[in-house]
Amino acid sequence: MLGKTADGLFWMFRYLERNENTARLLDAGFRIALTRAAAAENEWDSVLTTVGVEQSFREKYDRMETTCVIDFLLRDPSNPSSVMSIIQTARDNARLLRTALTRELWSATNECWLTLRELLARPVRERELPFVLSTIQQQNALLNGTLHGTMMRNEIFNFARLGTFMERADNTARILDVKYYLLLPSVSLVGSSLDNVQWETILRSVSAQRSYHRLHKGDVRPREIANFLMLDLRMPRSLAFCYSKITDNLTHLAKDYGVRQPCIDIAESVFARLKEHSIDEIFESGLHEFIQDFIRDNNALGRQIEMDYRFYG
Amino acid sequence: MNAFMKFDEMFGMGDTHREPYRDYHRWLESQDTAWLCRKSDEAETVFRRIGITFSVYGEEEASERLIPFDIVPRIISSREWSRLVRGIRQRVQAMNAFLYDVYHRQEIIRAGRIPAALIADNEAFLPQMMGVSPPGNVYTHVVGVDIVRIGEDEFYVLEDNARTPSGVSYMLENREIMLQMFPELFAQINVQAVGNYPKTLRRSLGNCAPYSHKGTPVIAILTPGIYNSAYFEHAFLAGQMGAELVEGHDLRVVDGRVAMRTTQGYAPIDVIYKRVDDEYLDPLNFNPQSLLGVPGMFDVYRAGGITIANAPGTGIADDKAIYSYMPDIIAFYTGEKALLKNVPTWRCSEIDALRYVLDHLPELVVKEVHGSGGYGMLVGPTASNKELAAFRNKLEANPANYIAQPTLSLSTTPILTKNGLDPRHVDLRVFVLVSPEEIHMTPGGLTRVALNKGSLVVNSSQGGGTKDTWVLEE
């Protein structure tokens, strides 16, 4: 496969995953904005920080108003991370590597782009937001389903999945990075209703409310949330789950090509750290430091994959 | 040829359908126009979803557009088709013999059959190709021959496309959509399949691999990238052929071979199906400003390390000034009379011809010698006085840049409109694959239709659409 094609696949699926995450974060933030006007500003601030556009938002707007945040994150062409900018870039990538995609997967991508373009042609009113966000998620589900249902399990699939899980790991880690203080055992407000809402929001932003409650019988505790999002191998958006998939796909590539590249060592050492430490140990040595190290290593892995598989000339 | 006689593919000169349309016409008569219009909308939705688009240069807003598709097919009988096949085969054979000669001993010039200046002063002539013999002496691996018809038995070759003819993806997708929309039609009428084209292309290109290659030849399609108007087609063919789709920056010369950067290092290529212009092939040998080419690729080519299809320099065979000599070229290399007629052509470089053209401008079609895509052309009968005057000035300033032809009354085929059928002018591009083993023509082609009533310009950049083209089984 061409290095360019691997690059295109990797980024196409990073972008698609990013959009899904933005939609989730917006959904969780909007819930707070609706129910607790006072907390809304803070919540939007952390959503924008998680997406990494807080500064560019402030350059454009003076106030943290819900309608502005929605517009900036969904439609703003000047924001390269807006859902519309991202789907445009993802589709451009897909055009570039059409030959690597099944006809069905290309159509699903193109249809996703057509649907979002139509949906986001005009500013989204608050009362339409839930519909818009669920459409974004549905379109993504359609794409991922088509990937699974029609694509061969080969190098093409591996690079696509690497993109998905590198981005997902980054996103979950960023949520933890922005909200880690809420999960610390020392937090004085433990048990207050504010915390409960905040914790629910964290779970909501990774679509994990129901699975968490099922697991813990409704008992919401910060330590368990941290464990769930970081170390639980059953939870499809946890750091450990992402890294089990990343190492799987890199191992598959190494077998397929008959060459073990340096990137797999990085991935295995990150995965080992997630498997070998308990959540208590992580809290003890510092949750924030752990997460920041993780984000740094995840970025380093991305760069190493690019080099090892010759994404660029 | 009589400009006032109008020949329709479905109805001939009269009101009753022609024989090739018998079954289709019977089916059509029993359909309701509103239902057909719905099917037509449905087809458009599918095209949009699959993303079968072309780019229009200089139109930012509509940079990706659909080529309008009309659901009434253009039908050709097997007898008509075999006649076209014989004529085109002869023409393409002569074309390749001519190219070999032009880039070797130039016997045709020595024999005085075409003027030396026509080659030597022609921009499409590539001196770097002198003495180069591609495998099997095949120069034009893929040719698109544009055919027009003006009567029951009157076919003309309007143009040869021997550089990088496009449109074949529309031939394939148009059929695909017709099969989806009207499956029952294909059960009733025996239409020859076109779907084997990508496989045949792969085989044909593989048969032209360098003599030195071993095993299954590695084939790649070289595209200028996603902003090229035909990018969809490049990607489509690569996908269908199982070939890699590469750009210049994916390629490099490694150990005397042209190789592509893969996730596992550089892998050599045997055959490049190039969809870029010659001058963008290799900045060392051609255009030093080009960012699209591969430095040193032409040296590999000359040393026999790679096949480039079509060979660089084939433009000398489809140049509009050369076109007028095609009957002589065919006679010279095959010893036969051309089976398919050329449209009479005045070469404005000749003083008598220029005088005639200037005197008859309102009746003629005038084209730039190197132009394509319907740009920079004058259609006399529909031009305003102002346009005629402006063109007259251009002609006088640089006569050698133009040729002129009579305005042919191209045959019409009905299209579906809200008010039922309405005739529009059409042409036909036939796709030809050339290898040392055979000259192959897929039974079908791309029928382009001028959607504006009365218009004779079928180019997609100028309001043209396409139709599925059926060649019936015997």
Any chance you could write out the topology, listing elements then pairs?
The complex is a heterodimer of chains A (about 325) and B (about 475).
Chain A: H1 3-35, H2 37-51, H3 54-60, H4 66-74, H5 83-96, H6 103-119, H7 129-150, H8 155-183, H9 193-205, H10 209-216, H11 222-230, H12 239-257, H13 262-276, H14 279-285, H15 287-308
Helix pairs in contact in A: 1-2, 1-4, 1-5, 1-7, 1-8, 1-9, 2-8, 5-6, 6-7, 8-9, 8-11, 8-12, 8-15, 12-13, 13-15
Chain B: H1 22-29, H2 33-50, E1 69-76, H3 78-102, H4 107-110, H5 116-120, E2 142-151, E3 154-161, H6 168-181, H7 183-188, H8 197-206, E4 219-222, H9 231-241, E5 244-246, E6 251-254, E7 257-262, E8 265-268, E9 271-274, H10 297-302, E10 307-309, H11 315-318, H12 320-323, H13 326-334, E11 341-342, E12 346-347, H14 351-359, E13 364-368, E14 378-379, H15 385-397, E15 402-406, E16 412-417, E17 420-434, E18 439-441, E19 446-450, E20 464-471
Parallel strand pairs in B: 1-20, 3-11, 4-5, 4-9, 9-10
Antiparallel strand pairs in B: 2-3, 2-17, 6-7, 7-8, 12-15, 13-14, 13-15, 16-17, 17-18, 17-19, 19-20
Helix pairs in contact in B: 3-13
